[in-house]
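A.,

Following up on our hallway conversation. Structure tokens first:
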């Protein structure tokens, strides 16, 4: 079945109330405080989830227990006074908490902004499958990638308050891998998390007719080869319209990663752009998922056809 656009949440305004959750790894307190201060400087009223500052008793790579992290997310999403939910950081942990959320209850709440990236890809998939809502693949408020990067800050701010101002996504250095134009609904995120959804009972279907976005971090080329090959063998790419590749930070020799993507994906015969500027990189772009967009591989641009937030 061909992907269709999801429901668009309302954009934020000065005075909007937002919640911060930590669904994956523990958050450095100083970065969390700086991120909350940044959101408040934009005129937002910020609430931090009850368990955001916790750390799992047995596994120090998790921010609190699975049920606690899930409860924070569900509470924030179902609160009628909350207009947006921001993830503090990625790392690992979203997969562990997916079954600690009552998605039927979550689906009764009206759509609102949901933002995060990296490990949060697991939640983007779940929001697509259960809630049918547009989400933002964005830098996270408890990370240096946002706190220390004014360009990433401003792109996220515009995406939240004035999304029509950032409808064309590109960056210096973006390149054509395979020429052509394509239109479709945006889908994807972190490649490691995309492949981890294969076989799950609530995994989204393959993105037929979609514009696929993929990026990753700290994965050697042979591991990326395995990820992409597994997706290919699973039929995940069979009917995609185009592919936009983001950053591949600490993934080894970038020229080899680029060659790998040509080798694995070039034969699909769809337009492909290299290094579009989203993911684990400087000047990180915020990219909406679940919206209609046009990929112009020759110009190395991705253009969102209508504002991601209404």
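Then the amino acids I'd put at each of the 310 positions:
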């Amino acid at each position: 079945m061909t992907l269709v656009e999801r429901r668009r949440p309302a954009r934020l305004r000065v005075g909007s109330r937002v919640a911060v959750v930590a669904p994956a790894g523990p958050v450095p307190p100083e970065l969390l405080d700086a991120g909350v201060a940044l959101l408040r400087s934009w005129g937002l009223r910020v609430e931090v989830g009850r368990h955001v500052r916790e750390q799992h008793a047995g596994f120090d790579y998790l921010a609190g227990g699975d049920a606690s992290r899930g409860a924070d997310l569900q509470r924030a999403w179902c609160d009628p006074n909350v207009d947006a939910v921001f993830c503090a950081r990625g790392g690992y942990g979203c997969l562990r908490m997916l079954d600690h959320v009552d998605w039927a209850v979550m689906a009764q709440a009206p759509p609102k902004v949901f933002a995060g990236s990296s490990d949060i890809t697991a939640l983007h998939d779940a929001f697509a499958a259960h809630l049918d809502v547009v989400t933002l693949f964005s830098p996270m408020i408890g990370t240096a990638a946002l706190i220390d990067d004014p360009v990433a800050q401003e792109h996220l701010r515009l995406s939240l308050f004035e999304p029509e101002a950032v409808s064309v996504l590109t960056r210096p250095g973006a390149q054509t891998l395979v020429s052509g134009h394509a239109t479709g609904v945006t889908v994807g995120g972190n490649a490691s998390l995309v492949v981890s959804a294969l076989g799950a009972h609530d995994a989204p279907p393959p993105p037929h007719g979609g514009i696929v976005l993929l990026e990753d971090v700290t994965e050697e080329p042979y591991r990326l080869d395995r990820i992409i090959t597994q997706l290919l063998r699973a039929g995940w790419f069979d009917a995609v319209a185009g592919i936009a590749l983001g950053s591949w930070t600490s993934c080894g020799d970038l020229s080899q990663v680029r060659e790998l993507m040509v080798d694995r994906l070039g034969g699909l015969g769809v337009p492909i752009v290299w290094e579009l500027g989203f993911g684990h990189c400087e000047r990180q772009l915020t990219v909406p998922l679940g919206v209609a967009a046009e990929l112009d591989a020759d110009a190395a641009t991705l253009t969102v056809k209508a504002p991601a937030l209404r």
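The mean pLDDT is 96. Curious whether your intuition agrees with the design.

B.
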